[in-house]
Known about the structure:
Radius of gyration: 13 Å
CATH class: Alpha Beta
Oligomer: single chain
Helix content: 40-55%
CATH topology: Beta-Lactamase
Largest sheet: 5 strands, antiparallel
Strand order of the largest sheet: 2-1-5-4-3
CATH architecture: 2-Layer Sandwich
Amino acid sequence: MFKQVLEGLISRVEEVQGAAMIGVDGIPITEIPVRAGIDLERIAAECTSLIKTAVATGRALDHGMPQELMLRCQEAQTLLRAVTPEYYLCLILDPLASTGRARYELEKACQQLEAEVY
């Protein structure tokens, strides 16, 4: 089921380099590389530190758990969306990709996966 949701997400968003469902331990549950050479395992491991920092910041500010994180770099954009507090969807886009549609589709995919996780 996880892989099917990721495949659907990728098919509805343009300029995707890859997608993964990751645990906060940094291990990808499932991953789909689209661009050749993309290392989703390494990306998942590195994104875990972003998630942990965002969780700590949300708690310190009494804002609650982070729902979405975005990292925009020269070579790619990384969108992270919470499925549950333990699992996040990670979507890697081209650096100039429009993120509006991607964020919408990411939220829909998370809703589908949340039902499967619980």
